[in-house]
Amino acid sequence: MLSPEQAKDRAQDLVERARRAGADAADAAYGASSAEAIQVRLGKLEDVERSESEHMSLRVFTGQRSASIGSSDLSPAALDELAARAVAMARAAPEDRYAGLAPEELLSHAPWPELDLIDPAEPSPPALRQRAEEAEDAARAVRGVTNSDGATASAGFGIFALATSHGFAGAYGATSHSTSASVVAGEGAGKQRDHTSRQARHAEDLPPPREIGELAGTRATARLNPGRVKSGPMPVVFDSRVGGTLLGHLIGAMSGAAIARRSSFLLDKLGEQLFPAGTTMVEDPHTRRGLRARPFDGEGLATRARNLVEDGRITTWLLDSASARQLGLAPTGHAARSGGGAPGVTVGDIHLAAGPLSPAELIADIAEGIYVTELIGQGVNGVTGDYSRGASGFRIVGGEIAGPVAEFTVAGNLLGIFAGLTPASDLEWYRAINVPTLRVDGMTVAGD
């Protein structure tokens, strides 16, 4: 794999080839990754996986016509052919008055923030196996666990480089480490499965494998003998491991492309009160060792920390250059590159600010409700905001967590969900989207 500096040079070289082939403007992105994973099951080695990939994508412009193309063959001859094909495709494409590179005056330049994304220690396969074995052994030792789906430990490294024909060139690398365990509790038709997984840029930031395994086992046994829930409106409390998906739907609807197409349930709601007053959602792409940290975006613009929601109001759309031009706004540094094609949008590390109440205090006044620990399916309409997903979790009775329940649906509209959302105080910082326990009053629960 190339070093970040070599990757940057490779991207610049492809841009130069595109200009020689007749492009008026171009940008090139280089991406490479390598990963190794060891899986064990029932104390035995189950799988060893090693993967490596290397890819370049090229976007060219001839006037206001554009085309994108990609290749994993990075030989000089293949890159020359790639550039020539891209230019030919662009000349045959329809004109797009919003097409073009990011505004030159907004490009970012080195030095960029030091984000500490690379762990210099590379675990050996025996070390990965030991980590997986420790996690599974701890999970299987939990009373009530009867089988295992296995435990996995992995490590990887990736590089991203971007160059443009109007003066940007940059690259960065990042490592990734993860440990997970999945086990089965109970017997026969009453079996239940659950898991725990953790990911970090540096291996030292992962919890001990035993802790991960014990939590997986405890979660699985807690789900044994689930009951059914009656249908009707009631408060729903989302565990922090699933509550972040609600913000994921919000982020998707904030995409400038969705707003420009008028296909978002947030249309015309910029600046309106969507959450309770005082609610804050923070994006920080410069979080040290963050899972979504990055020094610049997929078009070479600077990334920066900001409140995406402030005092309950959305403050911005997430704009790449094309959607910004279409909406008559400035790009926001949220462009993302993934393989070929035009940029999409993404965000840095996100957190929803914690509230003043502990989880116990948050549910203390709930006579009857649901505590959700798992969501199933993708029943979310990004145009209307209608929300309906299968779920499992626990009953809340008399202000306390009661027995497990399964096979029910929680439903509502995302605008109503956001308006009725109350965060607890138990915010943790290890996911890409970090939220505390979340309470939403008035959701519809469909069970028996």
TrEMBL record:
One of its GO terms (biological process) is proteolysis. It holds the Pfam family PmbA_TldD_3rd. Residues 231-447 form the Metalloprotease TldD/E C-terminal domain. InterPro entries: Metalloprtase-TldD/E_C, Metalloprtase-TldD/E_cen_dom, Metalloprtase-TldD/E_N, PmbA, TldD/PmbA_N, TldD/PmbA_sf. Residues 119-224 form the Metalloprotease TldD/E central domain. Signal peptide: none annotated. One of its GO terms (molecular function) is metallopeptidase activity. Residues 26-90 form the Metalloprotease TldD/E N-terminal domain. It comes from the Bacteria. One of its GO terms (cellular component) is cytosol. Residues 130-140, 190-212 have a biased composition (Basic and acidic residues). Residues 122-141, 185-212 are annotated as: Disordered. Belongs to the peptidase U62 family. This is Modulator protein.
